[in-house]
Amino acid sequence: MATSDPVYLRVVEDIRRQINDGSLPPGSPIPSRAQLTRKYQVGETAARHALRVLAGEGLIIGRVGSGHYVRERPDLAPLHRWRFLDHSTPFAADLQSQGRRVTWDWHSEPTEAGPDLARRLRVDQSATLTKTHYVFRGDGRPLQLATAYEPLGFAAHNVEERRSLVTRMYAHGVKITEVVESVQSRVPDPSESDVLDLPAGVHVLHVERTHWAGDRPVETSDIIIPGDRFRMVYSMPV
Amino acid sequence: MATSDPVYLRVVEDIRRQINDGSLPPGSPIPSRAQLTRKYQVGETAARHALRVLAGEGLIIGRVGSGHYVRERPDLAPLHRWRFLDHSTPFAADLQSQGRRVTWDWHSEPTEAGPDLARRLRVDQSATLTKTHYVFRGDGRPLQLATAYEPLGFAAHNVEERRSLVTRMYAHGVKITEVVESVQSRVPDPSESDVLDLPAGVHVLHVERTHWAGDRPVETSDIIIPGDRFRMVYSMPV
DNA sequence: CGAGGACTGCTGGAGCCCCAACTTTGCAGT
DNA sequence: ACTGCAAAGTTGGGGCTCCAGCAGTCCTCG
């Protein structure tokens, strides 16, 4: 008898089922907290927790003042991948603990944004970006190659710098925290803001292209959501 | 003035800082909800939300009836990686939407557990496991190779089967949900249950070794935590 | 002395409420 | 016909409380 497990799970599972079987197609609204409490006869706490869980899974997205909606590409929400900037330091520590020799280096150069990067980073096409090449090696063998593009002054080469970058972002009027989540972008990338199905006020900070110990690059963008969280958007051109 | 951002963040940031700078070494207890409300002069809701956020980040772990504790390897908590079983289906859909031809196949064979797998899956050394080889191809080129070991009867070859597997798990008295999280395992793997710093009652379901479009394998274990969530544990032998 | 039970503290689930900030809608007035 | 504004609905932050189940600890009783 599955009667004694958390009630919020009943709500989560029912909504998830509806999303999966198509009863709730992408873009359609999820009942509000108040409606859920009535519909499922649960308290507000359970309704809200259910919405938070589904949002955490990337199946739905909440828009303040409007409601929760089914994500365009729910299926790819939990995809994560190791990236130079986020994980090189801990990964290196891990390798070193195994007696491996870990090295990495990079060199940066200025470059013009151009149409594609301009759109993704939301800067002017003629804006100058910092283009950085990274090489990450274990026992001399390259494990990861990455090329990153960032607005001038925002380049960060490791996790610590990335943290101090947060401070710099504050100075530029962008408020961020450090919780990390991920979303899949549509690869052909239609056009405007809600392509990535993100709330208003989003800032893209960083676009990175990584070769991870192989021959297939992964493209990554960092998206800073003011006052909310840190997101990574992935696309994998094959 | 950072006075107006959420109070729970103040708690989160302070504890995170203490963990990062070593004031709270691995294993040490985090103040309880009641203590946090007093210490930071916040409500219980904020205290609890802070603990949930930190637990979600993998920095701390909550043990029912005992308390929250600093994780052994906090740094690697947010590592995720694409795996055959979790993401092949959506990834395939993505590739197909780009006009790519996607194929995969596998073949299974029985095998004896042996000491290492027996410990990880918590079965007898002489137990028979299902060993499965997967090949995942995009336009004929192999993108991912994986070898998975599972207790007999639990093999799943795609996301849908994996869901029905949940049902089968129920039949075996294991209660699980589908939220996914990840933890890094210690690679040398000392010995017993709390190696992975997981609560009691944990079941390991699946051990997988993946070559992801490259030459470096990733080892993955699925850990089923009854009534709680689904975890993946990673180690990356280089 | 040793085993078992009571007690305390903790987590996680759940309910209810209030509020600020934001979106949407629809109406009133020009 | 159009503009602007107010009202209603919704999210996210926060507060308070209660309870079940679990883990220690301590104390009592055999």
Automatic annotation (TrEMBL), chains A, B:
GO terms for molecular function: DNA binding; DNA-binding transcription factor activity. It comes from the Bacteria. Keywords: DNA-binding, Transcription, Transcription regulation. GO terms for biological process: negative regulation of DNA-templated transcription. Residues 5-73 form the HTH gntR-type domain. Pfam families: GntR (PF00392), UTRA (PF07702). Gene3D superfamilies: Chorismate lyase-like (3.40.1410.10), Winged helix-like DNA-binding domain superfamily/Winged helix DNA-binding domain (1.10.10.10). This is GntR family transcriptional regulator.
